Amino acid sequence: MVTIQISQDYDRFRQIVKGRVRRDLRKYLKSNELIGRQGGQVISIPITDIELPRFQYGENQGGVGAGEGEEGDVIGLGELEGPNGAGDQPGDHILEVDFTIEELAQILAEELELPRIQPRGSKNIEGESDNYSVVRNVGIEVLKHRKRTFREALKRQLAGGEYSLQRPLIVPIKKDKRYLSDRTELKPENNAVIFYIQDVSGSMTDDLKMVTRQATFWIDIWIQSHYKNVDRRYIAHDSQAFLVDQDQFYRMRTSGGTAISSAYQLAIKMLEERFSPEEYNVYFFQFSDGDNYDHDSQRCVKHLKETLLPAANLFCYGQVGKSSSSDRFIDVLEEEFPERDNLIFTFIRDDEEILPALKAFLGKGK
């Protein structure tokens, strides 16, 4: 009974915490605290203002104590010495709670009303699955199939006239024994690759790169929750493209001009050499302030039409920052692709627009 009660209390506490995270989702979207707290499939989230249990005075029962108390008095804290002497204000209670990828994805889905991703049907890789459904006449005792062994012994004794209704004793011998054995089956497993593309030219400030980092954190959470295996490739570019690791992707110094097509060419090379669209669900998330080298935009349109969009489940472009009305790559996309179902583009002018951008990117269930 105690175990059941503890389990119920724990479940109720988790629901309270989930409600608090959902209520403060915009704060977490703009916070850098979650980035770097991810360990495997678990992410630690700092929660403030959760009411912690505390003892209060009720009726004084006598015995050793500190005198009469007022209703609501907190026991045992007294005046705490701080760096500037004793204070009279309560402190913030920060509690770190571990969330799984699936739990955070559920919170995001509820807040943004996101549909589940529907993987492209033919984009599967066959994985091995052990299934103990085969019965053999050799094996180890721990896997002995008792019913089949009994049946074989009964059949043998009946055929040999050894079975007696007056003394219905069935004794299996070695050749009667049957054992469960594993059978390796091929099982479809949906797999995905995400290409994160970021402009690191001279016009991309640290603030804009941080907006990119915050958005990609939650994109990763959502896609991870739908696929067994997720590969990630990080492409940074100015006038040339570079394949980098995750840390470099967010920390590269900005300099140089801009040629978005260089990033597209590198992505196409990796699709051809490593990530065939016949085997992977392919996602692109690109972030730029919209500046691009003269005449390069038409090369980008060609790459999108001929290779990238046909290969992609989803291609999302986020134009970050308050760009000028000229040289905006988002205008090129809007003009060239007015009705492309798997191409989504939107402005992310500051961290307040991360949540609407996530809804735009992920709201089609692609």
**CATH architecture field of the largest domain:** 3-Layer(aba) Sandwich
Share of residues in strands:
15-25%
| Helix-and-strand structural type | alpha/beta
Shape: elongated
List low-pLDDT spans. Answer: none
The pLDDT mean sits at: 78
What pattern of helices and strands is seen along the backbone?
HHEEEEEHEHEHEEHHEHEHEH
Q: Determine and state the CATH class of the largest domain.
A: Alpha Beta
Instruction: Give the count of structural domains.
Output: 3
CATH structural fold name of the largest domain:
Rossmann fold
Q: Mind describing the biggest β-sheet? A: 7 strands, mixed
Query: How far is the first residue's CA from the last residue's CA?
Result: 46 Å
Fourth-level CATH superfamily of the largest domain: von Willebrand factor, type A domain
Measured as a percent range, the helix fraction is 25-40%
Radius of gyration: 31 Å
Number of strands: 12
Please, how many helices? 10
